[in-house]
Design brief:
- α10 links the parallel β11 and β12.
- It is built from 13 helices and 14 strands.
- It has three domains: 159 residues, P-loop containing nucleotide triphosphate hydrolases (Rossmann fold, 3-Layer(aba) Sandwich), CATH 3.40.50; 91 residues, Rossmann fold, CATH 3.40.50; 109 residues, 3-Layer(aba) Sandwich (Rossmann fold), CATH 3.40.50.
- A six-stranded mixed beta sheet has the order 2-3-1-4-5-6, sandwiched between helices.
- Helix content is 33%, strand content 18%.
C-alpha cells in the first residue's frame, strides 16, 4: 500500500511524549529517517505538535506526532503543554521518551497515569542509553535506546508495530452489510458546496469499500434517482444518500429498499452509534434559549448554504419552533467545557476513531447528548427508524 493510498484519519496515530530535552524529536527523526522535527540542546524547541503522515515499516501507513515538552514553563509553556495533552485524544499508541540518565520523573509518572486513564497502549523508551554503563531489567513495554547512536531504534519500531497489532480495533464501513454481487446506489448531489472535479472523502471511501466487498456501485444525483432505480434490472440492496437531500430521497426510494446516509455509516464506523442515535432524540426536548454546539472535524471554505453553519441551524429552528442559540467549532478545536443542551457533530471522516470516540465519551461524561448530522436530519424528517434498518441491532433502541 503506497504512501498516498490511505487517508490520515485511517492511519495509526503514534504520539511521542516526554519532558523537554528527553530527546523526543531526536527519537522521532531516528525512527522516521527524516529530519521531521527540529533538534536543539535548547529546551522547548518543539513548540507545537508536529504531524507527519508516512510509511513506517514494519507497521505500514501511520501518522507520527512529535509533541512539545510536557514540563514546559510560563504562560506560553502552559499552552504548549495543553496542546501536548490534547494530542492524547487522537493517539492510538503513545511513546513516552525518558532521559535514561535521569529515569522516570513525577511528571513522567503522571503521563503514564493519563495513558492508562485514556486506555492508550504505551511504550517507555529510555533514550540516551549510550551514556549509561548498566541498564535496569526492562519490562514488556520498556526499551533502552539511543537516538544518537541508532541503538535499538529498529527494535522500538517493532515494539510499536506489535502493540498496534495487539490493539487493532477493526470496524467495517459497509462490507458486513453486503453480499457479493449486491447493488448499492449512492446519491451524490452536485451543488455549489460540492468540490469541483472530485468527490468528498466519505463518498470515496464508501465507493472503495463497496467495490472491495465484490459489489456493484451505481451513483447518481438526487434529481436522477427515480430514473436510476427504474433503469436497474435488479433491486439494489441499499441506497446511501448525502444527508442534505435525505427527505427528498426518502420519498423516491420504495419502502422495501434499505436506505441510510453517508453520515450515519460513518457514525457507526468512527464512534459509538448507540450513543449518537440516542442523542438525536434530544432535538425534541430543546427549549427557548438553549445552546447547540455544531462541531466539524475539518476546516473548509464556507459556502453561502453551508450545511453546518447555515442549513442545520435553520432546520433545527424550524423543527423545534424554539429560539435556539448556536456555537460552531471546526478542525481539532473541541471545547474543554460543554455548557450545551446538545452537540451535533459531522460524520468525522477527517478524524480517526480514537478522536471521534473521545469526543463522544467526553460529552457523555459531562452529560451532554451528542448526535451527528445524518442522524439529526433523519430524526427531523421522521425517517430515523427507517435510516437505521440496515443495522438491525440498532432497531431495538426504538422498542
Amino acid at each position: 500500500m503506497g504512501l498516498n493510498d490511505v487517508a490520515s484519519a485511517e492511519r495509526i496515530h503514534i504520539g511521542f511524549f516526554g519532558l523537554r530535552n528527553a530527546g523526543k524529536s531526536s527519537v522521532v527523526n531516528s525512527i522516521t529517517n527524516q529530519s521531521l522535527s527540529v533538534v536543539s540542546p535548547v529546551k522547548g524547541t518543539t513548540t507545537d505538535p508536529v504531524k507527519k503522515a508516512m510509511e513506517l515499516l514494519p507497521l505500514g501507513p501511520v501518522v507520527i506526532i512529535d509533541t512539545p515538552g510536557i514540563d514546559d514553563e510560563g504562560e506560553l509553556g502552559e499552552l504548549r503543554v495543553r496542546k501536548a495533552k490534547d494530542t492524547l485524544s487522537h493517539s492510538d499508541i503513545a511513546v513516552l521518551v525518558v532521559d535514561a540518565t535521569c529515569g522516570l520523573t513525577t511528571i513522567d509518572q503522571q503521563l503514564i497515569s493519563l495513558f492508562k486513564e485514556r486506555q492508550i497502549p504505551y511504550i517507555i523508551a529510555y533514550n540516551k542509553s549510550d551514556l549509561m554503563t548498566n541498564y535496569p531489567i526492562s519490562k514488556e513495554n520498556e526499551i533502552y535506546i539511543s537516538a544518537k547512536e541508532k541503538y535499538n531504534i529498529n527494535e522500538l519500531k517493532e515494539m510499536i508495530a506489535r502493540l498496534a497489532k495487539q490493539n487493532k480495533n477493526h470496524k467495517e464501513l459497509i462490507a458486513d452489510l453486503l453480499s457479493p454481487g449486491d447493488i448499492v446506489v449512492l446519491v451524490i448531489p452536485i451543488d455549489s458546496s460540492a468540490p469541483k472535479g472530485r468527490l468528498i472523502l466519505p463518498q470515496q471511501q464508501t465507493i472503495r469499500a463497496i467495490l472491495d466487498a465484490g459489489c456493484i456501485v451505481v451513483s447518481c444525483q438526487d434529481n436522477e434517482l427515480k430514473q436510476t432505480l427504474a433503469a436497474l434490472s435488479k433491486q439494489p440492496k441499499l441506497v446511501i444518500t448525502d444527508s442534505q437531500v435525505f427527505q427528498k430521497v426518502a420519498k423516491d426510494v420504495p419502502e422495501n429498499i434499505l436506505l441510510t446516509s453517508f453520515s450515519i455509516l460513518f457514525a457507526r464506523y468512527k464512534g459509538d452509534i448507540v450513543e449518537v442515535v440516542k442523542g438525536a432524540t434530544q432535538l425534541d426536548h430543546l427549549q427557548d434559549g438553549d445552546t447547540v454546539l455544531i462541531s466539524e472535524g475539518c476546516t473548509h471554505h464556507r459556502q453561502c448554504e453551508d450545511i453546518g453553519t447555515v442549513k442545520l441551524p435553520r432546520w433545527i429552528k424550524q423543527y423545534t419552533g424554539k429560539d435556539i442559540q448556536f456555537v460552531f467549532t471546526s478542525g481539532t478545536e473541541f471545547p474543554a467545557d460543554l455548557p450545551y443542551s446538545l452537540i451535533i457533530h459531522c460524520g468525522g471522516c477527517m478524524l480517526n476513531q480514537k478522536e471521534m470516540n473521545y469526543r463522544i465519551q467526553y460529552a457523555s461524561l459531562q452529560q451532554v447528548p451528542i448526535t451527528n448530522y445524518g442522524l439529526a436530519i433523519a430524526h427531523m424528517n421522521g425517517i430515523l427508524y427507517r435510516s437505521l434498518k440496515p443495522f438491525p441491532n440498532l432497531l431495538e433502541l426504538f422498542d
